[in-house]
Amino acid sequence: MLEIVVASGKGGVGKSTVAATLAIHLSRRRRLIAVDADADAPNLHLVLGVTDWSREEAFGEAMVAEILEEKCTRCGRCMEECPYGAIDLVDGKYVVSSVLCEGCLTCTLVCPVKGAIRRYGRVAGYIREASTRYGFPLISARMEPGRPNTGKIVSEEKERARRAAEENTLILVDSAAGIGCQVVSSLAGSHLAVLVAEPTPASFSDLKRVYTLTRHFMQPAVLVINKYDINEDFLPVIEDFAKENGVEIVGKIPYDDAVPLSIASMKPVIEAYPDSPASKALLAAAARVESIVSDWRAWFMKHRPREPRPYKPEIIRPEKFRG
Ligand code: SF4
Ligand code: SF4
Asked: CA 20 to 30 Å from 123, out of 15, 63, 66, 205?
């Protein structure tokens, strides 16, 4: 069983288009389970034309505070101390915003009136499953607005995929943008990162950040350059970065109006416009990934990162411990 993660750092650079192409192409050759790991803004199901879910389950319980009006003496301590600014004074009453509250308990600790604040559980999100019309299952999630634990829900999605997997199953994870907890959960335990970038300074900056994460996890990475022809002056910057870091460029996709048109019609571009230049380049990239997967052991031994590049966080010490 192999896990491939499609990640980009920056959003909107074509990650889900690449993920959908890889999923369809690879599923023609082996059993595949797709995972949409962007629980805040899932959209792989839209690219794959999924409209109905065969199963949807509530996931997790996030704790939220509630002030009991009849017990509250209106002292205001809770509002002063809430680290998330989740308490407001509305019409003379202290009220907790269930969207902003992180359930940290601070208000309960500072409140001088016993029992004036209680906590209750709220569903954090939902995990759902569907069969795609391409014959492989899709596991997706959606978080409720403002709920924490998005990394946890991604870990649970991947766990479900692993439990359903058989030997030789490929798990393809479409990661969220950024380098936050969802992306960390997507990359953790996976075998190969397919990074997607455009030749723009913003995309390149985020590519370097997500690449740092793959190195932290000692994962090999390959690169797809999307819309490679929109900024040919900047293209060599990304190509040089890939060369310096031993990251193989498995595909260069040209800008093509067929891609946004296919997204608007909820069809993968390789199905909606199979003869378009973008479709041909996407399928060539998918074929290269397929050949890497088919010869995984040999490819991995040749391309695995030799040295970890652990992320060294900057530690801010309290004043009293300094110097
Ligand atoms: S539990 Fe924490 S975040 Fe929620 S209202 Fe109380 S202090 Fe604010
Ligand atoms: S700290 Fe307690 S008593 Fe004071 S305003 Fe908040 S809930 Fe009311």
From this structure: 15
- Taking the CA of 99 as reference, the closest ligand is 1
Give yes or no for a contact between 199 and 228, defined as CB atoms under 8 angstroms apart.
yes
In the reported structure, the alpha carbon of residue 42 is separated from the centroid of ligand 1 by a whole-number distance in angstroms of: 28
Q: What is the pTM of this model?
A: 0.85
Residue the block writes with tokens 């040919």: 232
pLDDT tens profile 181-205: 999 999 999 999 999 999 999 999 9
Condensed to tens digits (0 to 9), the pLDDT of residues 253-307 reads 999 999 999 988 889 999 999 999 999 999 999 999 999 999 999 999 998 887 7
Ligand 2 center–CA 72 separation, angstroms: 5
Which is the closest atom of ligand 1 to the Cα of 103? 1
**Structural tokens at position 10:** 């920056």
Domain ranges in the chain with CATH number 3.30.70.20: 61-123
241, 209 contact by CB (below 8 A): no
Residue whose Cα lies nearest atom 4 of ligand 2: it is: 75
2-50+132-303: which CATH topology? Answer: Rossmann fold (3.40.50)
Nearest Cα residue to atom 2 of ligand 1: 104
We find that the CATH architecture of domain 61-123 is 2-Layer Sandwich (3.30)
Nearest-CA residue for atom 6 of ligand 1: 107
Of the listed ligands, the closest to the CA of 94 is 2
Q: Where in the chain is the domain with CATH 3.40.50.300?
A: 2-50+132-303
CA of 117 to the centre of ligand 1 (A): 10
